[in-house]
Design a protein that fits this description.
heterotrimer; A mainly alpha; B alpha/beta; C alpha/beta; A: mainly alpha; 9 helices; B: alpha/beta; 2 domains; 2 helices; 28% helix
């Protein structure tokens, strides 16, 4: 009995310690961010390419289908009230405020987050980070910060692409397939969607971008430097990012409404 | 060098696409940009019932948006809704006996304020109030009236 | 050529002064690195319990020992990637424990280190890998960087591989590129972590020759960690055999080979059983097989 209590206590202490270490790590990364952004922008651009441009295909394909599904579901439900014209509003709100940021962040964790974590973990496992230390180069600004900033910059852009493509997906299904009036479709969207709604999406995407990138970089940097450790780090990246994104989503939505 | 070149091109395309998508969302899905004016003046109007009018709803004259609702409040003394709206200063010659009514765009569309020109020689001024107003037409009332009317016709 | 581990307590050193760190390494003293009473443990496992050794300027010094004796840990302690629990490490008269981050980084620029598998940066090609320290620490023009990098690559015989990616290199080539990178800042101390492991005999011969040549022509002090007795014997001026958290024996390769200590003999001649037991700690064989536990 006492051993169970002791285990529980130790686990809780370890959890709090890890959480604290993550905060300190985040501070380190953030503190080095301005200098990297100003001094080594080339490194950041390379990472925007790695995390953003390379995630584009999966984001666009998924966006198109999510939008299409929204069109089908929206139509079958709204048609009961003869309100098919509102299908655009239904899809636009869903995409811009919720699905765009959340699904993009989850896809980002799966595509870019795992790539970041495994890349950094492998650099650690193959002594590349130690080698940098030995060459008197601090790996935090040289390796971690550009990857973090690349993710932060890429995320809002990916979210915007996702939402836009998603709307086109809905347009394709609703207008081309189900013969909803084009004018009504877009006009309803324009009348109803406000700048505030888009701001909510942008705020979410920035928060998710920071969270997802930071978690991926942290997991990679703290991976056990073996093949198994790197594998576990990538898994944890996806799991933790998914939880963090949904928790943040709930909190932001609660505040914004 | 070839590799960095393709990275640069890819990144450029990605950022352009992302910014383009953001631009598309902000301009094409919001109606917020059909009214913008450098100089405006503020008016007030009192309605018995504003239906589902919201702030930022358009103020239109002859179907053209010339202003926007800025605030809606309830006057506890007169028990009326007080709607404040702004109008682009270039339309400064609206007769002060023009009347305002709350209209609906389309059957299920959102509501807006429609101004109908009067014949006075004096014009709306900043801080003025619209004298003649007509409340929102509520679908329920309309249906009620229709039923009452058709019922009384039968009795005749 | 004789070297020795200093007996405990015979060495008195004045406390380090802050200003020391700002000046260049003290070039006059005979010993470049002095380690006194070093203690370090990982978890419950004690790795060093009072290690003393000196590394002489301009020589090739080797740390040898059975696997798991903490040879690589010792390198990490010397380069302050790890911090000892007790004891001091002086490099060129500077106590490295007193250095702040900036001073440590300045000191590390005097080091070149060759990691076990090269540790080349995977996203840069060979040329950029070698140029990496120059780009980070100097403001040399591209022309000058190109000149320096190609010179260093030529020295390791890989000028022709400048455009290849690390993933396209063989193990031996990767290590030679890493060597070129370690030398590119013209360090005072070159550290090799297991440079001979997993190489074919030809690559091995190349590395052995390079190590010796770097040391003699450039006046570098070299430290090698290895358990390849034969290769070490051909390059090292002085070897330390580390076992049980202390220096078990030291001397030139010839001296070690003829030493009387059983442990040294076992290691130098590769005998399966001896002070380092063949059997891992276990209960009595007979007892376990015929097993009272089995009941």
């Amino acid at each position: 009995m006492t051993s169970v209590v002791r285990d529980l206590f130790n686990t809780s202490v370890e959890f709090v310690r890890t959480f604290g270490a993550f905060q300190l790590f985040s501070l380190r990364v953030l503190r080095h961010s301005p200098e990297v952004l100003l001094g080594r922008f080339g490194l950041v651009v390379k990472q925007v390419f790695n995390t953003g441009a390379l995630s584009l295909v999966i984001i666009m394909v998924c966006g198109l289908f999510v939008g299409g599904v929204l069109g089908l579901q929206g139509y079958s439900n709204l048609a009961r009230f003869n309100a098919e014209d509102s299908i655009g509003v239904f899809a636009a709100f869903g995409l811009i405020k919720e699905l765009g940021p959340v699904i993009t962040a989850l896809l980002f964790a799966g595509r870019a987050g795992t790539a970041l974590a495994s890349e950094i973990g492998l650099m650690k496992a193959t002594d590349q980070l130690s080698a940098m230390e030995m060459m008197a180069v601090n790996p935090v600004p040289r390796v971690l910060v550009p990857r973090f900033l690349g993710g932060v910059i890429a995320m809002p852009l990916l979210v915007a692409v996702f939402s836009m493509i998603g709307l086109f997906g809905t347009h394709l299904v609703a207008v081309e397939l189900l013969s909803v009036d084009v004018g009504a479709f877009w006009q309803q969207i324009q009348i109803t969607v406000d700048m505030e709604d888009i701001n909510e999406g942008i705020i979410k995407s920035i928060v998710f971008g920071v969270a997802a990138s930071m978690i991926a970089v942290w997991e990679g940097y703290n991976a056990v430097p073996t093949a198994e450790g790197v594998g576990r780090a990538t898994t944890r990246t996806v799991v933790i990012t998914a939880i963090a994104v949904l928790v943040f989503d709930f909190m932001i939505t609660a505040v914004m409404i | 060098m070839q590799q960095t070149r393709s990275v640069e091109i890819g990144t450029g395309l990605f950022v352009l696409l992302g910014v383009g998508a953001l631009f598309f969302l902000t301009t094409q899905t919001t109606g917020g940009d059909d009214f913008s004016a450098d100089e405006i003046y503020t008016m007030e109007a009192r309605f018995e019932n504003i239906g589902s009018l919201r702030t930022r709803a358009p103020v239109a004259m002859s179907g053209v948006t010339i202003g926007r609702v800025t605030s809606i409040r309830f006057d506890p003394v007169t028990l009326e809704a007080v709607v404040q709206f702004v109008i682009d200063s270039q339309f400064d010659q609206i007769p002060d006996d023009s009347d305002a009514s709350i209209l609906t765009s389309g059957i299920l569309g959102s509501q807006y304020i429609g101004l109908r020109a009067g014949g006075s020689d004096t014009y709306f001024e900043d801080g003025g109030e619209v004298m003649f107003t007509q409340s929102a037409i509520l679908l329920e009332n309309l249906i009620g009236k229709f039923l009452v009317n058709s019922g009384s016709k039968d009795e005749d | 050529m004789l070297c020795y581990a200093v007996a405990e307590g015979t060495y008195v050193r004045q406390g380090p002064q802050k200003k020391q760190t700002m000046k260049q390494l003290d070039d006059s003293s005979h010993n470049l690195i002095e380690i006194r009473n070093l203690k370090f443990s990982r978890g419950h496992r004690v790795i060093f319990k009072g290690l003393d050794l000196d590394i002489k300027r301009g020589e090739v010094t080797a740390f040898m020992g059975p696997s798991g004796t903490g040879k690589t840990t010792l390198l990490r302690l010397i380069t302050r990637q790890l911090i000892p629990e007790e004891g001091t490490i002086h490099i060129g008269g500077i106590d490295i424990a007193t250095l702040n981050m900036a001073e440590l980084y300045r000191l590390r620029q005097r080091f070149g280190m060759l990691f076990q598998n090269g540790a080349l940066l995977t996203d840069l090609n060979v040329f950029e890998n070698v140029a990496f320290p120059l780009r980070e620490h100097t403001k040399l023009t591209n022309r000058l960087i190109r000149h320096v990098v190609l010179t260093k690559l030529h020295a390791v015989g890989l000028r022709g591989a400048a455009d290849m990616l690390p993933s396209e290199l063989s193990g031996g080539m990767a290590r030679r590129v890493a060597l070129a990178r370690a030398m590119v800042m013209d360090p005072d101390i070159l550290i090799y972590d297991e440079p001979f492991v997993g190489l074919d005999p030809i690559s091995m011969g190349v590395i052995v020759r390079l190590v010796r040549r770097m040391n003699d022509t450039l006046g570098i002090t070299s430290i090698i960690v290895s358990h390849d007795v034969a290769e070490v014997s051909t390059v090292a001026d002085c070897s330390f055999l580390i076992s049980g958290g202390k220096v078990a024996a030291s001397g030139s390769p010839d001296e070690l080979r003829t030493a009387k200590s059983e442990l040294v003999r076992q290691f130098m001649h590769g005998m399966a059983d001896g002070p380092v037991a063949f059997h891992y700690q276990a209960p009595d064989y007979e007892e376990q097989l015929l097993g009272r536990d089995a009941e």
